[in-house]
Amino acid sequence: MQKQIKFFLTLLTVLILAVSCAKNNPNDPNNNNGSGIITTVYYGSKSIVVNTADQDKLKELWIGLVKNQFIYYATDYAYKSGKFDSEGNYHDISSDYQNPKPEIRTKYIKNIAYQYNGKFYLAGIYWDNENQGMPNAYRLIAFDDKGAELAWFGGGSNPNNIPNENTVWTRYKDGSGKDAIWGYIEKF
């Protein structure tokens, strides 16, 4: 009887170790491989399975989404509020309400996959050139499946300390305290 108990305990120990020390399944879409997460990332009306550490791929997707796109105040696309240039930098609209100002308002820095409402969104990290003394000069921008521009602030005001996946971001609020929408892109 003692041999059976000893055998059973040994078998149980081996099974527990095998399960707890098993390698991650490489086909798991949420596999954390130590250098990012392979997961579905949403950007506008599109989605893709991507390694979130692959900055080249994230940049390619982001620039493909925002390149030369105007931002509009509403979904009727009647009034422009800004424009992304070919490098992903954001420019305010000039006083003619049609053309972007030559100065870069927010400079594109890099991308992250930001978890919001249970999904990972492709988001651009930007440096705001018109910060005007606020404690956070970095902005995080993402677009939902309706083309709405969502924005957060965080990361401090040191241009040499670039935010990353661990940065705490705070969503901008509108005048009534609800989450703000900064505008809409037409092609998303």
Mean pLDDT: 85
- Listing every helix as H and every strand as E from the N terminus to the C terminus, the arrangement reads HEEHEEEEEEEEE
Strand percentage lies at 25-35%
Morphology call: globular
Helix content: 10-25%
State the domain count.
Answer: 1
By helix and strand content, what is the structural category?
alpha+beta
Largest sheet: 11 strands, mixed
The rounded distance between the terminal residues' Cα atoms is: 69 Å
**Number of H- or I-type helical stretches:** 2
Number of strands: 11
Keywords: Signal
Tags for this model:
single chain, 188 residues, alpha+beta, 2 helices, 11 strands, 35% strand
Give a written overview of the molecule.
The structure is a single chain. With 188 residues, this protein is α+β, with helices and mostly antiparallel strands. Strands 1, 2, 3, 4, 5, 6, 7, 8, 9, 10 and 11 form an 11-stranded mixed β-sheet that branches. A hairpin with a 7-residue loop joins strand 3 and strand 4. Helices cover 16% and strands 35% of the residues. The chain is built from 2 helices and 11 strands, in the order αββαβββββββββ. It has one domain (38-185).
